[in-house]
Amino acid sequence: MATREERDKYRSVLEDAGQVQWRYDNPPDFNSVNQLFEEGQTKVWPEGSLEETVQNAIKSWEMEFSHKIRLQDFKTINPEKFKLFVNGLSAEETLRLGSYNALLKNSLPEEFQYYKPEEESFESSHDAFRSALPRGFAWEILSVYSGPPVIAFKFRHWGYFEGTFKGHAPTGEMVQFLGLGVLKVDESLRAEEIEIYYDPGELFGGLLKGPPISETKTTDSGDNTAEKQSCPFTH
């Protein structure tokens, strides 16, 4: 097992764990997704640059919302002021919903909602994406357009669809989306507001591309054969 000093070079808040109450009892291990990031990143930012600082800050922010259960243990946000402006969620609401549900919540008509956050729990949402993207969902900064206290940036999120997702078989292909964000920080560089803009269709187009996994049926000869179905999103 990695020592605390070796644990994660992108999420320094893990080195100051203290008496943190972890959602899964222990600090998370990001070795797999860090490898995915390093193999697939399109930008390598100089150490100490604004781009690297913002990139690591967002990685740390996501880690805290996914793996810590008490706001008092958070190092990356100002809990009294924090808002996530995908739909104006507070720190408490974001922590309750989980980062996936918070970021995927939308106002599309129900027939166009391929993923319904209101029907998912924190655990089921993370299980769904961990299943679909077993090596993790890597994240990188592509550009930073302004410095603190209001930081505007462009990002890329990617992984490989190597597990099932909501009844769809894996394709083994990369799924990714690009987006824009605005991060407002306080004097200690803790997040007060995060605005995220992206097209969920970029992500779900890749995840729904896999053919539906149908129940097996028994033929007259006793053989189990998969029922063939067509996915409307592959045409």
Automatic annotation (TrEMBL):
Region feature Disordered, mapped onto this chain: 214-235
InterPro entries for this protein: NTF2-like_dom_sf, Pathogen-related_defense
Biased composition, class Polar residues, residue ranges: 215-235
Name by which UniProt lists this protein: Pathogenesis-related family protein
High-level lineage: Eukaryota, Viridiplantae, Streptophyta, Embryophyta, Tracheophyta
